[in-house]
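Can't paste images in this forum, so I'm doing it all in text. The chain is below; anyone willing to post the predicted structure tokens underneath?
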Amino acid sequence: MELERTLMDKKKYHYPALATAAQEISAYIHGVENIYILSLKNGRTERFVANDPQAFREWLEFHRIREVNSKKQL
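Text version of the structure:
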């Protein structure tokens, strides 16, 4: 919880352990458990394993990065 507040208050563009900045991410898919697939604005994709999936999701939402839900796309 404290990490979440620190991230939100400071509006950090980099999530701990993720080299990619928020402004470089176009969208994401939350796979299984703590695995995320990030779609980058340069056309590449990146896999990220979050130690705290809930905190990472909140960070993505804070930066208004859209979630691609494959079930909704069908």
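Helices lie at 2-10, 53-62, 70-73. The mean pLDDT is 84.
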